[in-house]
Amino acid sequence: MPRHRSLNLKKFIDSVPQSLLKEYFQKRFGENKQLPLSRFDYETILEFIDSNKNEEVIGIIQNDFKHINDLCEKVYNILIQAIDKYAILTPRESKREELALNLFVHHPEAYDYAYDHYCFFNSTSNLSQHNIEALNFDLTTDKLERFKAEISSYYEGLAKGRECIIRHYNEDDQTTIVIMHGSYKRSMVVWEGDEIETKFFRPANEDILRFDKSTSILSIKTRYANDRTKYIDAFTSILIEDKTQAEREDRDATFTLIPLQDGTFSYEGNENILSVVLVEAKVNYGGLTCPEITLKSKNIIETLEDGQLGIGLQKGHIIKAKFKFRLKVDGRERNISFVIQPPNFTDLNKKKYTDIIEAYLKENGIKLI
Hints:
The structure is a single chain. This protein is α+β, with helices and mostly antiparallel strands and 369 residues long. A hairpin with a 2-residue loop joins β4 and β5. The strands form two sheets. A ten-stranded antiparallel β-sheet has the order 2-3-6-7-1-12-11-10-8-9, sandwiched between helices. Strands 4-5 form a two-stranded antiparallel ribbon. The longest helix is centred in the first third of the chain and has 20 residues, at 55-74. The protein has three domains: 9-122, no CATH class; 127-246, no CATH class; 258-363, no CATH class. The protein has twelve helices and twelve strands.
């Protein structure tokens, strides 16, 4: 799940027409119920939240507003993309908060599209990428049902509950599959009036698979390695009907840090990249005890070149690296930092201008595909 931005409730509510806020409350808590709100301005809504003793109602409102605000503040471009994709007419003067809430209230399919794609870029889970060739990829209803049944059975077998919601978006260049599933039950001690009770709940997780049809790359966002393996197995055996793709030797070979060690990587940049700096590296130096050292510096290459540490990157095996790129795009300079951990983990997808950086990494042998 993504981390939420801090919500400025006043800014959010002041940016949305009261008529739309009224529709939101009716949608969430029943059109036929008498709402205790006579107005839908900031002061009235805040008083309603503060005075409401129903924790479930408060939680719903706060959770909804945080989700909607995330779309406004973090991925406005995806919000616009959803509006265009579903051909939704919107007033030109609408603020982004109004656009997002309008999708939530009136166009749930478009809202799910925007939020699911937001989760792909902002989930706290790491991204893994895999070489999966799929000739004549065809995502049918029957395949999706079998895929869902397989994943539901898998999580039920782990005592994480059989409940599983799967949404998918099959577009010209890529297919995105969102898997919402349960986790192990947890307990929490809470007050119920004057009594203390233990309540049990099952957290929900959201994993995402994205298949790029043009490059035959399957990207996966999930927390656990076993779940990742299961997704690859089900994707290859059911959705593309070619189990051998899960067993290919180069399946996970999408990144390498060898160019940092053999000196072939260029830190010079290009017309869009003003500078490239290695600011962190985790290195295993082998031997009987296999020591691992994490180096951090404003510029690791310059730090090692002065010889004071008496070590170098060439003598060990780089496990993980963090780069700082300085870009000049649209007349502005921007710093972008990201991590690569071979064979297939990175958080680069969470950053802007990924295409510029990925092209440079591929040209310099870091990105293999």
